[in-house]
Fold this protein.
Amino acid sequence: MVIVMRHLIASLVAAHMIAASQPPSYTIDAIRLLNRGGFKVVVVTSQAGVAHGSVTEEFLSEVHGVITERVAEAGGRIDSFYYCPHHPHAAVEKYRTECDCRKPKPGMILNAARDLSLDLSRSFTIGDRWRDIEMGIAAGTKGVLVETGYGKTEAPRRPAHLPPVPVVANLIDATSLILRKSGV
Ligand SMILES: [Zn+2]
């Protein structure tokens, strides 16, 4: 089982605040609850900053390391991070491509499923944008939209080609819903 989240760390990375990057405590609570419920927690993000040359992959992996450590210190476990560093118009040539991992394509989740032996039919994608949900559905997971981040503006604007999914206030509510639906 897996749970995939998008915006957990994106803002921290964008702000280059590695020294100060502290995941909010409710985020860590949610991760701990999911861990206890037997879920693997995977963070999936777009990192167009890499494509455009404002962030390096080395920096990103440093940030991922710090976040993993801080979550672990608080008793939680993030199993893995996946990111898409590509963009069709990337400034940095090696990232300029039409890849399979750019949202809403499901490449990142499919890679996670392969690497971590995840059962996608019993997995959930939590995100604050419809393209996160679209990626999750394309990968065979169920979606949950949270109203934090972009979610408040996104919630009423579901694209017609996507089925309705539960919309909840935040990550904690998403977690309770997922545990309840999974019979945990
Ligand atoms: Zn990509």
Observations:
- The mean pLDDT is 86.
- Helices lie at 7-14, 25-36, 48-51, 57-73, 107-116, 130-138, 151-154, 171-181.
- The radius of gyration is 16 Å.
